[in-house]
Amino acid sequence: MKTIGASEFATHALTIIAEVAATRESVVVTKRGKPLVRVTPFEGPPEDHAPGKLAHTLVFEKDIVSPLGDEDWDSCR
After folding, report:
1. Residue 71: inside a domain
2. Looking at residue 3, which CATH number applies to its domain?
3. What's residue 4's pLDDT?
4. Half-sphere exposure of residue 1, counting CA atoms within 13 Å on the CB side?
């Protein structure tokens, strides 16, 4: 894992971020030799948790009041 000083990171942040994204290798940012943060490549959500993955499992009812009846619906409010 590569390390870099905070002042150098501040100067070249966009270049370092692009390098981390391209190489998929983390970079540790240090201040006075002590680690502060780690810049790591982003890991997206797994395919199983992709938005809209379960959309086909939803059931849409046209009328949600009729199964209860008007009287029961009013008392449930």
Report:
1. no
2. 3.40.1620
3. 96
4. 12
Residue 52 in this model has a pLDDT that exceeds 80: no
Domain membership flag for residue 3? yes
Q: Please list the residues that pair with 39 across neighbouring strands.
A: 27
Residue 6 lies in domain: 1-41
For the entire predicted model, the pTM comes to 0.57
For CA atoms 69, 71, 76, 77, the dihedral sign is positive
In a domain, 50, yes or no: no
Residue 46 in domain = no
Residues 6+ apart with CB under 8 A from 36: 6, 29, 30
On the question of pLDDT at 70 being above 70, the answer is: no
CA distance 74 to 13: 60
The Cα–Cα gap between 19 and 10 comes to 15
